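Lab notebook, page 48
Experiment: co-folding of the full assembly
Goal: obtain a model of how the components sit together before planning crosslinking
Operator: M.T.
Materials (sequences as entered):
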Amino acid sequence: MATLLQVRNLTTQFFTSSGTVRAVDNITFDVDEGETVAVVGESGCGKSVSALSILRLVPWPPGKIVGGSINFMGQDLLEMSNDDIRRVRGREISMVFQEPMTSLNPVLSIGLQLTETMQHHLGLSPAQALKRAAELLEMVGISEPKRRLAQFPHHLSGGMRQRVMIAVALSCEPKLIIADEPTTALDVTIQAQILELMKDLTKRLGVALVVITHNLGVVARYADRVNVMYAGKIIEMGSAQQIYHQPHHPYTLGLLASVPRMDQPRGTRLIPIDGQPPDLTRLDGGCAFRPRCRFAVDRCAQEFPPLENIDSGHVSACWRVKEINELKNAS
Amino acid sequence: MHKYIAKRLLLILPTLLGAAVLVFFLLRAIPGDVCEVRLAGSGLYVDEAEIELCREKLGLAKPLIVQFWDFITGYVVWDLGDSMWTGKPVTEEIGLRFKLSLQVALMATLVAVVIAIPLGAISAIKQDTWIDYVVRSFSIAGIAMPSFWLGILIILGLLIGTQHFLGTPWMPPIEYVSPFKDLASNMAQLIWPAVATGYRYSAVATRMTRSALLEVLREDYIRTARAKGMTEKIIINRHALKNAMLPVFTIIGIEFAFLMGGLVVTEQVFNLNGIGKLFVESVQAQDFAMTQQLVMLVVLIAVVTNFVVDLVYAWLDPRIRYA
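Observation: model returned without errors.
Model output:
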């Protein structure tokens, strides 16, 4: 598969009165055509900001992309003019946000919010756009699509609104959809439905999907590849198999040990990760996970470890990556 | 929607009745009445019997509850009584001045809306740039400057300006002419008070537009619109302004109701024979019949304006429309 999106050394910072927040710090990753990439990590680790950075939607002030490049189909999104990036947004790359309750405009009809992108990007006539909008609603599993088009967001439940958001995202047949915690605000049964729908539609339509989540179950089930982020950096990256079965970073190990898994015997103890994520305004040169890491050594405080190759496509940023399996078994 | 309108309409009646009770009894709680003001106002000796006779004639000698009953039933038979001071029907006295006051209020509102919404929007979009600072200074000045003082400046400016450029000083006409009869001379008289009051009015509305729009621009759905690749123009006009207009219309409604009865000093400055002036005169004369009808008129305008604002809300926001 050809590479669709190449993010290189992306760095986004927030300039606040209490200091510079290094929200996304020098991250590099690829997304291939049609694949699903999960970005996982705790709240505040830079997942959402990295997603917003791709479409240059980080609000300035206080946020600013200070370095790197984002190559999408041969063009650097960071070098584009404002008009050009606007033609990418919603057309080539679209987004689904976390809060279906607030992400749709309360005073505009579902129909208008669906058709405006198609009229704007594809030049459809209002009638054509409405016809396609009804088809899209049907596709995302909304009954009576014609009636829904005239309704407003408050008429719909949270799950339905997220379906509408997905329909909006798909409307211009983009190459890539970025979903920022698409199911966090929904209840559990709806979460599964929405994820199934996204997985199904993206596979069927050949759309690549970047899904940002802190739900490791989502990762196991839906992602081809996984990027694990901590304190603004990608600290481990690999296929879902590799991350799940051979995690090579103490943070990934900790994450996996802290959630229940169906493939583990019942009664296995869940082990939380001690401590708190660091303050992103006060990072030193060393590994940010060091204070919470059971395996930390002196070197961790001095230098940030580079991403080390473990297997094909599997990298981890830890000084003790070679000994991690023995360490894990010993503890 | 029909249910919503019906409910809002039905609420108007108890509001008016409450206002009627309040104004009727509060007026009569003040010591003295129109007869004392008229006969004993000069401080000379008056026969007590003469005052009683006057009260008898004006119906002030009747028990309060009977007077109140007459006041309320007056609306049913459309007899709002005669002025206790001039003896002419209240409706005639108010009618003379109402057109003028209404026109000034409408024109001031127009001035305010035309200035406030674009300026407030530009100020919010260009937040913390020089444009924003200019607009904010302009609107702060409007709030700080009393309308009557601005009115004095306008009149002086007109006099001095016309003297300088035309050779002879020009003053706005003093006589009110219906705009349907002679639009030019009507405007020549009323445009100045409309601008003087409209400026302060617009200042309040500009600030409200700015802050409401700034708040809306931080909403998630605006980020969604950006992520959809919409242009800034569409984002502001279609996605943001409609949401931001709700509090602005509230302010416009409140201000409009105030303009209908509250322009006492401004009317004085421009020598306008409006509702505000009539209000002050009738209060000074303790002309109960006139004062209570004037208060009821202002209350009615406030209530109707609120009703219209509620309808605008429903039109702007489907959550209200379908509730």
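Interpretation: Residues 57 and 281 of chain A are 21 Å apart (CA to CA).
Next step: discuss with group before ordering constructs.
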